Amino acid sequence: IFSDSFVASGPLPREGKRKYLIFLGGLTDGLMATNYVGPLAEACVKLNWTFLQPLTSSSYIGYGTSCLAGDAQEISELIRMIRKSENDAEIVMMGHSTGCQDIVTYCKRYHEMKLSSADGLNLRLNAAILQAPVSDRESMATNEDTKKWFQLAESMVKEGKKEELMPRDSYDVAPITAYRYHSLAGRGTDDDMFSSDLSDEELKRCLGCMDIPTLLLYSGSDEYVPETVNKEALVRRMAAAMATESVDAQVLSGADHAGSDPGSIEKIKEKVISFLSRNFN
Description:
single chain; alpha/beta; 9 helices; disordered N terminus
């Protein structure tokens, strides 16, 4: 599937009603973002699901000059293309890392705010899967240089320079705008949805748009989560903040951020396939 802003690839189902699992990676990710993508895609085909991996403007090193709202807009184009030819298609979106923020942003726009396409097509998702939804702010705070670069980004945003690039020394991988640095490192910003210090009310404001069946898989040994964070308690609070009562929230013991080891790959695959099987005939 091609568009001006994205390309999506994946195997088509053999027959019957189309069901799609759309996978969104995190910062710096592109195709085959994690070790479990391949096995999961194969398992989806056996279940007669189409597994899609969109490449958007924020893929690979594009994240630094992109934003979650832009991701959601581009993803909506993919949903529209699917529903234009198959209005009854069932669509589940799965995010890894910042892909989870993309899903929440999408639900905020197209579920809570009820935005629609110009041609009136249904842009709602049928379910969501969040794998490794972590706080960029809490992870970045472990770097002693973050404070000074955040202060610079904050001042640039206030001066109307949010789309200007930060100094080269402020980033390791991708050029990044003042807006995106501030959003990733700041409290209560667009990207700040899963931080452990957010109050229950703040979490509800962030996640209350999640009104569809949701599978939440938090990595028990996530290297991007500070050791001081009580993962089990945070996962319970995140689930309680969602509008849906159909939330399966779990901490995967021993799993790193990307679920890289063979045991975690198998766990993630099994839990995702079980979730799809339970919720869709």
